[in-house]
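Discussion board: Methods & Data

I've been asked by a reviewer to show the raw model output for two of the constructs in my manuscript, not just the figures. I'm not sure how much to include, so I'm pasting the format here to get opinions. Each protein appears as its amino acid sequence followed by a line of discrete structure tokens. Is this the kind of thing reviewers expect to see in a supplement, or should I convert it first? Here is construct A:
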Amino acid sequence: MTPDVLAALTEARAAKRPVVLATKLPSGEQILLPDPKASPELAAAGARALQRDETGTVKLADGDWFLHVHNPPPRLIVVGAVHIAQALVPMAALLGYAVTVVDPRRSFATDERFPNVSVSSDWPDEAMDRLAPDARSAVVTLTHDPKLDDPALDRALKSPAFYIGALGSRKTHAARLKRLRDLGHDEAALARIRGPVGLAIEAVTAPEIALSILAEIVAVRRGAPLVQPAPATRDAA
């Protein structure tokens, strides 16, 4: 690895910027993607590798390339420090997500209830502005309180977050969508919200609901086909 490539890789990792170190086989020629000097085919292969989080060898027209993905960890922003969140957070951490719990209610958002996790007591709109969800971010709202959930969803819909989910029954979700329409969001934007949140696995308990949410996040991230939406009765917190 040349000093220039090493310096660029070190800088990208420090800035948590997703990059791919592409090495041509067997010559050892290297390029850090994305790079405007890369061929369109190599650039596309690098973009696919980043999206899929897949390190490995690809066969291109000009030969074999080993693509080493350097992605920052995916993020999960949970709005609402409720019981489901207490089950969801450790599960997400086990899957490598960097988790932040947002809840201005200080009796809920405590280090005791969420040990070893970033906890924000800012109002959700302020927290979301600071956290700036990107294409590797998932956002889940769990409070059932429009004063907390709606500002977070409003900000999430204005971001490239790959997953947006909101807890609540279909009736609750319909009312939520009306409020978000009033904030100026069109139908295409509103269709991004998974509501009722989670895969339809007949979940009842808080851990089961947390599992269904995380399973749906993984399915969306990996591009897996999804089953029908969760039952209308899901309204627990």
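Construct B, same format:
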Amino acid sequence: MEIKTKTIAIANQKGGVGKTTTAVNLAAALSQRHRTVLVVDLDPQAHATLALGLEKTPGYSLYGVLAGERAIDETIQPTKWNNLNVIPSEVNLAGAELEFSMREDRLEMIRNAVKPVKDAGVFDYIIIDCPPSLGVVMASALAAADSVLIPIQAEFLAMDGLALITNSIERIKTVNPALELGGIVFTMVNMSARLTQDVMNEVREHFGEKVYETTIPRNVRVSEAPSMGTPVVFFDPRSKGAEAYKAFAWEFMAKNPTR
């Protein structure tokens, strides 16, 4: 069966919204559904790398590929779970903002780097965990993506954060006209908070079907899993957080078919 690889950037300029947690657990849940997934960790903190049970290893990140020091297939590392692979992050990525900012191809550099992998059709999904700030690396990641998934919390100023990232998407369309807002997912949801439903209703009213029906609840097992180097869908499959991410993966697959 032919696979049409889709590249999804998971991004939000606001930190602490569950961006990396969503990248890791969506990837893990997709792998359970027999979809092949490559996570590209572009955050210098390497939280996605660590949450997938790998260590930061100098030379094995997208930095080496962007610098012309290594082929991309040399950086792809398997995890302990079938169908789930990762290009780890490392501290060198912290310097990429300055080092690559003057390159003429700075917006196209990540798209060009991952193109051989995408063209090979080995992976159903390439999931890019973006850094939490709109610099050169995040802009280049958006330029490499087919669509953007935005995790947000249902809290005050959520709409302001969404406005920032959606404006960024519009600007990147000058170099990637096909880029689209793939969806918005609510994370760390506390339905007992009075503000939560109001914010969710406001976002749904504004963005309509772009907002996923599945929401991710605030759940202690989701918070504990990264310290074990294991996505929560494997760490505690019956927890509310794991069940939510598995349901989200089904909805995500329906919106983003690759086969």
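Answer (T.O., handling editor elsewhere):
This is acceptable in a supplement if you add a one-line summary per construct. For B, something like: The two ends are 7 Å apart (CA to CA).
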